[in-house]
Amino acid sequence: xxxxxEITRQLEKQGLGFTVCTxxxxxxxxxxxxxxxxxxxxxxxxxxxxxxxxxxRRCSRDGAPLLRCPPVGEILVGDYQFLSLIGVGGMGGVFxxxxxxxxxxxxxxxxxDESVSERDKLRFKQEAQVLSKLxxxxxxxxxxxxxxxxxxx
Length: 153
Fold this sequence. Notes:
Radius of gyration: 16 Å
Helix content: 10-25%
Structural class: alpha+beta
């Protein structure tokens, strides 16, 4: 899983949401307005602003699935409030989130809904089970869920 780029750091710092390719990691859309909404971005790096990033499904460069990172503070899933993107990979992303009820900072691994096979979901659940059993680990598993229907978004 690749670490996030400087452009994604700047977007998060400004509280903007964005859509990123899971393969080439190019930012393809920014939520929240126009290029003026992202004044700290270096010249030439301002990506195309899409009115609805949710309409984007695949990267125009390599056809890889896209990952939506919501604006900072928005609910990612359940009670987990998005803080930043930790990393992105072919099956999804890892996000730094805050659990609103427990007021704890956690990492949330989220699989891409559309590209998850039954085998991937099983592997995801097994990974969570193994991590939850590691007594010496500083990592704790608080919650596990996987997309119920891999063909819907």
